[in-house]
Specification:
Strand content of chain A: 35-45%
Oligomer: heterodimer
Distance between the termini of chain B: 57 Å
Helix content of chain A: under 10%
Largest interface: A-B, 27 and 22 residues
Largest sheet of chain B: 3 strands, antiparallel
Number of helices of chain B: 4
Structural class of chain B: mainly alpha
Helix content of chain B: 25-40%
Number of strands of chain B: 3
Structural class of chain A: mainly beta
Radius of gyration of chain A: 38 Å
Shape of chain A: rod-shaped
Strand content of chain B: 5-15%
Shape of chain B: rod-shaped
Number of strands of chain A: 19
Order of helices and strands of chain B: EHEEHHH
Amino acid sequence: MTKARTNADNASADIQGVTAGTGLSGGGTSGTVTLTNDMATSINAKGDLVVGTANDTYSRLAVASTAGYVLTVDSAEATGLKWAALPASGPTFVGCSLYRTGASQSYASNTNVIVTFNNEDYDTDGFHSNTTNTSRITIPTGKGGKYRFYYRGFVTSYNSSNYINVGYWVNGVDTLYIVNYPNTSWSEGWHQGEFITNLNAGDYVEVAVNQASGSTKDMRTDSYFYQRFYCQYLGA
Amino acid sequence: MIKFNKPQNLNGLELINELKAAGVSIEKPPLIDGNDNFWLEVDSADEAKVAAVVAAHNGTTIASEPTPADKLTAAGLTVDELKAVLGLN
């Protein structure tokens, strides 16, 4: 048998008050009660964000004033986030470009002549010295990995159809030869060769020219890119 | 590789033939390194014999073709004078 509800029963079941919890404001114990979402009112402008700052706490992060900025994690910020510019696009070049000026280097016939370089177009990481071991491109500390090398040059007065070899020497050991057969109508022995290899820090690479004209020849040196020895770091 | 005195007039092919004629086994061309040192890949037992051949070597050399500037100078002309003659000034 069910017992009828009394007024006392009804009074105890009434809502006594509304309290604003986390993220809310307002409330009351009588009449019409309004609760306001504090997270929503923290926003002042288009693009603003509400970001957690600790357990059960939050703060407004105003939108960036610069178009194109992106949201970035930064533990030094109160919100742990900040607006920042995108990193510069594209990789940073690592390598060098070498050449020779002044007196020409002579190439004895049928002899491997290690080429020396006393000038640089650029050298990002101290690969080369213009004064010490000037023939060498040495791999810097922390830059071990795959490398591309390219050498080109002219031998002057080359009225021969005999070969001009471009040889790559790694740590003083002949490693690769590229055979060139000059066009005799040019009267200049154009020669070139490319080499891609894996190297460790401290390894060094040199290029040797071996021309078979039958007599000593000179290399052409001037500022018109006739001769260059390039090195390009491809990656670890 | 053994270092020798670099011949004044070096011709690698001729030197290899001279070494072979003297009974020296050599397969690789001579090397001039980045410090202008001269090296030959020969057996150390042959070092004295090789040194004698190298010292006697006088390879074929042909004078390089003079440059256009050299030819002008030899003719007593300057570039500006040549331009004037050709009506290029």
